[in-house]
Amino acid sequence: MKVVFTDLGYDITTISQPAEGIITATTRDFDLILTDVRMPGINGSEVVYKIREAKPKAKVLVVTAYPGDPWAQKALDFGALALVKKPFEIVKILDFLKD
Question: Which terminus of the chain has fewer Cβ atoms in its 10 Å neighbourhood, N or C?
Answer without folding.
Answer: C
